[in-house]
Amino acid sequence: MASFTTRVELHDAGSDDYETLHAAMEAEGFSRTITSDDNVRYHLPTAEYNRVGSVTRAQVLESAERAASRTNKKYAVLLTESNGRTWTGLGKVSRHTSGYFR
Predict the structure, then answer these.
(1) Structural domains in the chain plus CATH codes
(2) Looking at residue 87, what DSSP letter applies?
(3) In angstroms, how far is CA 75 from the centroid of its own chain?
(4) What tens digit of pLDDT does each residue of 65-83 get?
(5) Other Cβ atoms closer than 10 A to 32
(6) Which residues of 4-30 are buried (b: 16+ CB within 10 A; e: fewer)?
(7) What pLDDT digit, counting tens, does each position of 24-68 carry?
(8) What's 31's DSSP letter?
């Protein structure tokens, strides 16, 4: 399965627009968290999304565009397919944390 990190920037957008984006991205199969090799989940930076699956870059981009278009804002999308990811400084997801999905 492939792993993708997707960054979506909404132009001239407010927090409500990003809430719409988050919900739309979730509906398209994206997550706002990433899981380490030892199964610890971490929050991604704002407006970055994770998707893992048997899909192509083109399919993931199409999904991200569909989600971003639901905000009715102009947007930019950067998609990276990965064969491994490393990070530091991301906050761990706790059971009591709200505002995340998947």
Answers:
(1) 2-82 (3.30.70.2360)
(2) -
(3) 14
(4) 999 999 999 999 999 999 8
(5) 20
(6) bbbbbebeebeeebbebbbebbbebbb
(7) 999 999 999 999 999 999 999 988 999 999 999 999 999 999 999
(8) B
Instruction: Name the β-bridge partners of 4.
Output: 51, 81
CA atoms within a 13 Å half-sphere pointing along the CA-CB vector of 23? 8
| Stated pTM of the model | 0.87
What is the C-alpha separation between 96 and 94, in angstroms, rounded? Answer: 5
Neighbour-count burial of 64, counting CB atoms closer than 10 A to its CB (0-12 exposed, 13-18 middle, 19+ buried) = buried
Matching residue, tokens 């998609």: 79
